[in-house]
Amino acid sequence: MIGGVLGAVAALAIVLVLSLATSGHTSGGGCIDVVVPYSTGGQEFYRCGATARAMCNEVGTPEGYNGVQGRAVAIQCRKAGLAVGS
């Protein structure tokens, strides 16, 4: 029984270390990683290059990102060193 408990603790420790060691996307180097919130949830966007620049240019435009969504996108664009707005 002690062996089973120790095995479970060891497995949990391995899972914890692996989850902390692997990271997801981050904004930087011309790439943006942003979660755009909506009233029914949200969506994660990871964009690089021309696609990221186009997304950043849409902040504050009538057909683009405004309000809470615009602020979330603008923050990540600035972290990536990209211009915000048109």
Supply database-style keywords.
86 residues, alpha+beta, 2 strands, 49% helix, elongated
Structure, described:
- A hairpin with a 2-residue loop joins β1 (31-38) and β2.
- The chain has a two-stranded antiparallel ribbon with strand order 1-2.
- The protein is 49% helix and 19% strand.
- 15% of the residues are buried.
- With 86 residues, it is α+β, with helices and mostly antiparallel strands.
- The protein has a domain at 31-79.
- The model has no long low-confidence stretch (mean pLDDT 84).
Q: What's the topology here?
A:
Layout: H1 2-21, E1 31-38, E2 41-48, H2 49-57, H3 67-79
Tell the overall outline.
elongated
By helix and strand content, what is the structural category?
alpha+beta
Strand order of the largest sheet: 1-2
Q: In this structure, how is the largest beta sheet organized? A: 2 strands, antiparallel
Global mean pLDDT: 84
Instruction: State the total count of DSSP E strands.
Output: 2
What is the radius of gyration computed over CA atoms, rounded to a whole number of angstroms? 19 Å
Distance between the termini: 65 Å
Number of helical segments with 4 or more residues: 3
Percent helix among the residues?
A: 40-55%
Beta-strand content estimate: 15-25%
Element pattern in H and E: HEEHH
Low-confidence stretches: none
